Amino acid sequence: MGSPRHHDVVIVGGGNAGISLAAKLRRMGCQDVAVVEPKRVHHYRPLLSYVGGGMATLEELTRPQAKCIPSGCTWYANEVVGIDPDRSVVHLATGPDLHYTDVAVCPGSRVDWAAIPGSEEAVGTAAAATSYLPEQAVKTWTMLSSLTAGRAVFVISDRHVPCAPVGLKPLFMAADHWRRSGVLGDIVIELLVEGSRLVNHDDADRELRTAADSFGVRVRTRTTAEAVRASARSLRVRSPEGTDDLTYDALYLAPPHRAPQWVAASGLSTAEAAGFAAVDPHTLQHVRHPRVWGLGDVATVDTLPSGGALRRQVPVVAHNIAAQRAGRGLRRYDGYSVAPVTTNRRELLLAEFDRDGHPEPSVSTPDLARPRRSTFVFDRYLEPRIYWHRLLKGNVR
Ligand SMILES: Cc1cc2nc3c(=O)[nH]c(=O)nc-3n(C[C@H](O)[C@H](O)[C@H](O)COP(=O)(O)OP(=O)(O)OC[C@H]3O[C@@H](n4cnc5c(N)ncnc54)[C@H](O)[C@@H]3O)c2cc1C
């Protein structure tokens, strides 16, 4: 086990949130930051949707984790198995406990296969896939691009799915591919969305429905996939009209996600937070433990979890850790989030909104909520560079 060690700030999870926060804290002069992250590679996850649409490779979105950990930080290539917030201790799967002055909890969320019984078995077959996991993303495009006739069903859950509307990217990229290869007329495309809209932004929602119409997609909102029978290639579906069974030739899932179980076991959740880290969505401070902070997909930020949202959350947490120590007022996060969605293989729209669904565009013109070629190029080619060279370097304000 070894003797316990102390760090000024311990960051749990070295994904988008953890690395950006570590770098930001170092920039602000914090001398002793430790990151606990078991994975040896770091993924730029937004490109997974393009892998699922046949427009990017896994190599393009993968870097060695060692190259992402900011210089001057201590990296524990280890897994956190629990936190004792009363004693300010992080427990690792192997090795010594870590004591902290402040801890930032950002281990992300994970696919909750149990939420749709049969779904895990289904993605083990050639007829179902998800771009939400690196090991499934290439198969998503293999499945979609090899379909030449039949029924393609796309399921977008709204249960904690990271940046859920990007689940539409593989749909639109595939539909455009089917049109270009002359088989669109032979494929029935069904889109099942759990929420009442495709995205939490009026204009963008309208644009996406228009794009769906142009490809003949049958859109069903407030519709939930309840179970999958892989052997029969069949899906049990519940909608306001009732329950029915839908067969498929290709099934794409943006599946429900859940928080890691140790978060609740550590007393960091509440009944309402349903396993997620219960933070004040404005200050990102834990509701009961003032030295615990939460951000990213694991935290109850009361808005769509996304990488874009982290650009605003990271500086708030970094500032608030310092502000609390100095007895100054805490900064507030307004719930800004973003969903970039391709409408074909050339164009993309950007829905940006706050916690209440009010548009919050980052530029006043042009209107980025309309599909554009320039926005597509930005999202596919420039944004990954910004991620590696600016966001992971803590270059956020
Ligand atoms: C397919 C896909 C497409 C997306 N597209 C977009 C997009 O276009 N635009 C956008 O803004 N957002 C997008 N997102 C959302 C964005 O990627 C996430 O919101 C963001 O990655 C969340 O960052 P995070 O650090 O909270 O979680 P993650 O990035 O998931 O990182 C969590 C890290 O914690 C580590 N970890 C987990 N458990 C433990 C533990 N017990 N101990 C230590 N470490 C642990 C994990 O290994 C991981 O590295 C997409 C997500 C996916 C999956």
UniProtKB/TrEMBL annotation:
This is NAD(P)/FAD-dependent oxidoreductase. GO terms for molecular function: FAD binding; sulfide:quinone oxidoreductase activity. Residues 7-125 form the FAD/NAD(P)-binding domain. One of its GO terms (biological process) is sulfide oxidation, using sulfide:quinone oxidoreductase. It comes from the Bacteria. Transmembrane segments: none annotated.
